[in-house]
Give the backbone structure.
Amino acid sequence: MKLFDRVVYQTRRQALMAGMETGLIWIQGNELSPKNYRDNTFHFRQDSNFLYYCGIDQPGLSLLMDLASGDTFLCGRDITLDHVIWMGPQRSLSELAEQTGMSGVLSEDALHAMLQAAGSAAVHYLPPYKGESILKVHAYLGVAIEDVTTKASDRLIETVVSQRSIKEDRELAEMEYALELSRDMHLEMIYEAKAGVKESHIVAKIMEIVHRHEVDTAYPVILSVRGEILHNHHHHLTLQDGQLVLGDFGAESSMNYAGDITRTVPVASTFNSQQKDIYQSVLRAQAAAIEALKPGISYQEVHLLAAKQMVLDLKDLGLMIGNADEAVAEGAHALFFPHGLGHMIGLDVHDMEDLGEDKVGYDQEVKRSDQFGLNALRLGRKLRVGFTLTVEPGLYFIQPLIDQWKSLKRCDSFINYDKLTPFENFGGIRIEDNYVITNGGSRLLGPSIPKQVEEIEFLSGLDKYIA
Amino acid sequence: MKLFDRVVYQTRRQALMAGMETGLIWIQGNELSPKNYRDNTFHFRQDSNFLYYCGIDQPGLSLLMDLASGDTFLCGRDITLDHVIWMGPQRSLSELAEQTGMSGVLSEDALHAMLQAAGSAAVHYLPPYKGESILKVHAYLGVAIEDVTTKASDRLIETVVSQRSIKEDRELAEMEYALELSRDMHLEMIYEAKAGVKESHIVAKIMEIVHRHEVDTAYPVILSVRGEILHNHHHHLTLQDGQLVLGDFGAESSMNYAGDITRTVPVASTFNSQQKDIYQSVLRAQAAAIEALKPGISYQEVHLLAAKQMVLDLKDLGLMIGNADEAVAEGAHALFFPHGLGHMIGLDVHDMEDLGEDKVGYDQEVKRSDQFGLNALRLGRKLRVGFTLTVEPGLYFIQPLIDQWKSLKRCDSFINYDKLTPFENFGGIRIEDNYVITNGGSRLLGPSIPKQVEEIEFLSGLDKYIA
C-alpha cells in the first residue's frame, strides 16, 4: 500500500474541517463486494473520498472527524490470528492510524456509540452508493432506508467537491503514471488490431499489462469494432479489414488515480477516405476544444465549440446543411455526437460522481441543459486552475437513432438524411485525452499518445516485435 | 449468452415447485455491483440460483414462480432507445422469457404489486448476500432489514440445495470445460515460475488466458511464494531459487461453472529434498482421499483419512510423534493442515455457499466439528452419486501459528516443536483436483493436470516455446 506522507492527509482533513461547522464527519471506506456469495468477492476498490482523506487501501474501515476537538479516528476491527493465517501479517489499526496522522482508533462498537450519542442530525456523511454502505448508515445512525440518500450532508458534499476539484501536484503525478500505463495499453491495441484477430484477444493483451503492474483498469474496457455502441463491453467479434476498432480504456495508478484514453484505429492499417474524413473531423473538434481550455471558460461552452467544429466538417461532407450555429443551438449535431465532451477525472474516472453529477459539474452559473446530447455533458461549469478533465469528442452512426430521428423528421433542416446511407456500417470514432487547467490555459496530462492519421497508420503497419 | 435448451430450465423449475407447497417463489438475479460510484461497476456476475433456474446472464432481473398456477415470470425493466445507444441492441424481456420457457413477463411494478398482495409470509426467497438484494427484499416485501436473512425460506433453501447438489451431465461438461482452461492456466504457471520473475508477471500471463476466452476466474487468484498464507492475494514478490510457488486458481466456463485447481511448483525447476518430502506427503494424502471417495462415505471421514496419512508421513520425518489416530483425534495435524479437505463445487466455487455452509455441507447425520482445523471443513456429509467436490490437502509452516501453539505447549505429545526450525521459511504446499462421485467411486473432472514430482520437474525445466 503506497501512502503519501501523513502531513498530506492531515492537511486535507484540516482543510475539510475548516470548511464545516459543528458535529461529526463520518466517511465510510468500502467493504469487499460479494460476487456470488459473501466470501467470493470482487477485487477490492476503496472509496475515493476515504482514499483522499487517509489513503488506506483496505476494506472494513471508516473515518470519524470531530469538528469540536479536531480529532480524527480510524474505525474498524482489529486483526486476529485467524486473519494472519488466512491473509498474512497485516498492520494493526493503530499502526495505520499513526502512519496517516490520525488522533487514534475506535472499535466498531465505540464508533456506533459515538454516532448514536451525537444523533443523526449532527453527523455529516456522504451519499452512499453501495448497498452495504446504505445499510450501515441505517444501522449506525438510525436513518430510515428511504432517507439515507437525501439526508447526506450537502455542506459536506460541497466542501469535499471544492477540495477534490483542485488537484495537487502529487495527484497530477499519479494521474501521469496512470496515463503512462494507459499509453502502453493503447499502443498494444494499435499493434494488435489486425484482420482475423478477436476483440477479446486484444483485451487479453491489454489486461496483461494491467495485471503485470498489479493495478486495475479505471473502468471496464471498451474495445469494439462497433464503436457506435457507446459503452460496449462485449469482445466476441473478429476484426475485419475495412473496419475501425474503438478502444476506450485506461489504467488506475497504484494509488487509484485514473487514466481515461480513447483511440480509434483502422484494422487495415490505413484509413479509407470515408474513415479519414470523419476521423479528421473528430480530431479537429478535439483540437478546437483543447485550444479553448483556460480558466474562466465554461466547459459547456467548450462542448458547443467542439460541436460547431464538427457541424462545419459534416456540412463540408454533405451530411449536414444550414447554419452551423443554429444547428448546434437546436442540438442537431447530437444525432452524430450524442454524448458530452468530457468530465472531471481524478481518483474516479468520472471524478466524484458518487457525490452527484450536478454538484460536481454544474453550479449556480451554469445549469445542465435538458437537450438530447447536451444533457449527457457531465461537466458544464467554468474551469479553474487545477481542474483535470477529459476531452473526448466523437462521431457515430447509430442506426436505431438515425431511424428514429428520420421518421420524426427531427432537425431535418440541418441533417441530410439521404446522405447517411453510405455510413450505415461505419461504426464510430472517438478520440480522448486528459488535460489539467493551468494559468496559461491547459496542459496535456501524461505522455503524448499517437493520434494523428499518419502516426496511427505508421504504427498500425508495424510488426510490433521488429519495431 | 449461452443457454441450455428451454426444457432444461422448465424441468428444473418444475422439480423445484414440486418440492414446495403453497405461495410464491421469488429468486432475485443480481444487479451490477458499484466500485467507486454507482455507474462504475465490476464485471457482472449473475446469481447462481438465478442461472440454475433460467440461465439468463443479465443484470436487473428476477424470477417469480406461482406455486398455485405453476406459472413462471421473468421480471424486470424493458430496454429503451437510450439503452440501445449506450449498450447496443438487446433481447427484450419477452424474448428472454420465451427462450427460457417461461409463462410471461412482469414489470417491476407488477412484481412489486404481486409480492405485496401475497404478503411476505407467502413469499419464499433465498438469503440475499448483497446489500442491493437485501434492500430489495425490504422494499418489495416490507420485511424489516434486520429480519431479511432470518426470514429467508428454509424449505426453499433445502429444496434448492438438494436439487443443485446432484449435477446433471451437462453441468459436468461445463465444469470440464472450465477445468480445461484451468489446466492451461496452471501449465502457464509451471512454465513461467523461474527465478527473477515477479508473481504479478505470472498472474498477468494467467489472466491473459482468462480474458482471451472472455470468461472470468472462479475466485480471486492465489499465486505466491508465501503459500503458507492461505488466501494470499498479493503478487508483488519476486521468485527466488529454492522457493516454492503455490498457485490456487481456476476459470469459470462461459456458463459460470467453476474450476478450482491448486498446484505447487519449485522455482528452481527441481524440488529440494525437504520440499520433496512434504510434497510427496500432500500427494499421498490426496491419493488416500481420492481412493476413499464413494457414495455413502462421509467427507468428514475422508478428511480425517487424509489427515492421518499426513501424520504418518510427518512422523517419518520426525516432525510429529505418538499415535497417529490419537493425534488426528486431538487435531494435532491442524497445526500443519489448518483447513478443510474440500468443498462442493459447481456454479459457485464453494457451491451454494450463499445458502449457508452448514445447509450445504452438513445434515442431521454429520454435524460440523468445532475443533480447530476440522471446523474449517465446508463439506462433511455423506457423499452421493452426482456430488462434485474438491480434494485439496495441504501442509504449511505458518510461523505465527507455530509460535502460538508452541508457547501454549498445545498438542506437544504429538508435535516435535524442536524439529520445526529448519522449516521456518518453507512456505506451504497444496494440491487440489475436482472429482465427481460415481456409482463405482469417483471420477476426475477435466483433464489430468501434471502433479507428480517428475512431471512437474520436467515441465518446469522446459523452455515453453521450444516445448
About this structure: Chain A has a mean pLDDT of 96.
